[in-house]
């Protein structure tokens, strides 16, 4: 899918440049962002291509035919304009508002949405706790994000908000899971409005209410994973999986690789044996073929977990 043109027209050229740099870095938006300082420069900024979306300062006057979609950058929060974006807020907030406005038209071409049946899922799970599982998952995700589009999702009841991630009480996994339960056709645009960036890797802030994770049914998790890989820009999902999820074995069953932090003490070894036995009893012994054991000492040294080739499997619900 080719990128569309978005032009920011604002006499505050430094502001326009900073916003353009931010939006150009949002891989969930299929835009090439350009800037200009006055309405007379809009078409020139667009170059040979038509301007698909125009963000124009409320200090400028435009005719209305400069772009397919025009949104006003308002200098006051309560401007009274229905399709306005308050300009003096965080880049994430501006982006979120832009995604919401674009999603109103249900035009997926303006978002980084592509139809595909490929992609891989990397799971991080261990029946042994306090072995640095989340840190390991984040390191792997950041490593892969240097070369591909990666989305990290935390499936733990208590994800350590404020330690690994800035706490987001209103825009987090809970919102995403609300739309999952409805199997919403707007999942891609909802996801684009929730995604945050950390060290080059995209993630959805973890849920802060444990029940929001515990109440999700196994089929809803699988629908979410399929939908993200089918309708978003992401090539790889990194799942940080907790014990509280319903359908743990089903989730592990759709992972191409499962990184399992381990330790060599008797208690840890006993828990891992019990986990492996329970997989076999539940009919998931084949999942063990995808497990990559990661020694706690190696994880603590800051090295990335080992690599293994992906295993093909059916992602059916």
Protein model, in words:
This protein has 317 residues and is of the alpha/beta class. Helix content is 34%, strand content 19%. The chain has two domains: 4-110, Rossmann fold; 120-300, P-loop containing nucleotide triphosphate hydrolases (Rossmann fold), CATH 3.40.50.300. The chain contains eleven helices and twelve strands. The protein has a seven-stranded mixed β-sheet, with helices on both faces. A five-stranded parallel β-sheet has the order 2-1-3-4-5.
Radius of gyration: 22 Å
Strand content: 15-25%
Helix amount, in percent?
25-40%
What is the total number of structural domains?
2
- By secondary-structure content and strand pairing, the structural class works out as alpha/beta
Region (Disordered): 298-317
InterPro entries: P-loop_NTPase (IPR027417)
Any key phrases for this structure?
317 residues, alpha/beta, Rossmann fold, 2 domains, seven-stranded mixed sheet, five-stranded parallel sheet, 34% helix, 19% strand, elongated, disordered C terminus, P-loop_NTPase
How is this fold's topology laid out?
Layout lengths: L3 E6 L3 H12 L6 E6 L5 H5 L6 E5 L11 E6 L9 E3 L4 H14 L15 E5 L8 H13 L4 E6 L17 H9 L5 H8 L1 E3 L2 E3 L6 H5 L3 H14 L4 E6 L6 H6 L3 E6 L3 H16 L9 E5 H5 L17
Parallel strand pairs: 1-2, 1-3, 3-4, 4-5, 6-10, 6-11, 7-9, 7-10, 11-12
Antiparallel strand pairs: 8-9
Helix pairs in contact: 3-6, 5-6
Short description:
With 317 residues, the protein is an alpha/beta fold. It has eleven helices and twelve strands.
């Amino acid at each position: 899918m080719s990128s569309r043109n978005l032009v920011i027209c604002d006499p505050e050229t430094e502001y326009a440049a900073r916003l353009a740099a931010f939006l150009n870095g949002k891989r969930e938006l299929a835009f090439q962002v350009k800037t200009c300082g006055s309405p007379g420069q809009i078409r020139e900024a667009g170059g040979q291509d038509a301007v698909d979306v125009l963000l124009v300062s409320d200090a400028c006057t435009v005719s209305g035919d400069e772009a397919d979609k025009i949104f006003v950058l308002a200098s006051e929060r309560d401007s009274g304009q229905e399709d306005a974006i308050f300009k003096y807020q965080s880049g994430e907030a501006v982006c979120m508002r832009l995604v919401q406005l674009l999603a109103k038209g249900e035009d997926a071409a303006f978002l980084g949405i592509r139809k595909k049946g490929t992609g891989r899922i990397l799971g991080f799970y261990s029946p042994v706790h306090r072995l640095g599982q989340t840190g390991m998952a984040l390191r792997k995700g950041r490593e892969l994000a240097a070369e591909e589009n990666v989305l990290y999702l935390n499936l733990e009841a208590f994800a350590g908000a404020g330690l690994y991630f800035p706490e987001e009480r209103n825009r987090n996994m809970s919102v995403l899971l609300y739309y999952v339960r409805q199997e919403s056709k707007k999942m891609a645009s909802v996801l684009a409005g929730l995604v945050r960036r950390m060290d080059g890797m995209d993630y959805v802030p973890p849920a802060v209410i444990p029940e929001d994770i515990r109440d999700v049914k196994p089929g809803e998790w699988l629908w979410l994973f399929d939908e993200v890989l089918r309708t978003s820009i992401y090539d790889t999902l990194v799942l940080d999986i907790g014990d509280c999820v319903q359908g743990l074995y089903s989730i592990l069953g759709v992972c191409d690789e499962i990184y399992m932090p381990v330790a060599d003490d008797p208690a840890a070894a006993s828990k891992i044996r019990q986990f492996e036995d329970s997989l076999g009893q539940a009919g998931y012994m084949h999942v063990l073929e995808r497990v990559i054991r990661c020694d706690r000492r190696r994880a603590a040294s800051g090295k990335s977990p080992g690599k293994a080739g992906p295993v093909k499997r059916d992602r059916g619900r």
